[in-house]
Amino acid sequence: MPKMLRNVLKNLFSPPATVKYPYEKPEPVPGTRGRVTFDMARCDLCQDCERICPSGAITVYPDEKRIEYDPFRCIYCHLCVDNCMQKAITGEEVVRAPEYEKAKDVFED
Amino acid sequence: MSDQKTVKEFTVFPFGPQHPVLPEPLQLTFTIDEEEIVDVVPNLGYVHRGIERACELNDYKRNIYLCERICGICNYMHSMAYCEAIEKITDAEVPTRAKYLRTVWSELARLQSHLLWLGLFADGMGFESLFMQIWRDREIVLELTEKTAGHRIHLSTNLIGGVRKDMDEKLIGAYHEGMTELKARMDDVAPVFYRDRSVQERCVGKGILPKSEAVHLGAVGPTVRGSGIPQDMRKLGYEAYGELDFEPVTYDGEDTYARTLVRFDEVYQSIDIINRALDQMPEGPIINKNTTFPDGIAINRVEQPRGEVFYYVVGNGKIHLERCRVRTPTLANIPALLTMLVGHEVADIPPIVLSIDPCISCTERFTYVKEGE
Question: What pTM, to 2 d.p., does this model score?
Answer without folding.
Answer: 0.91
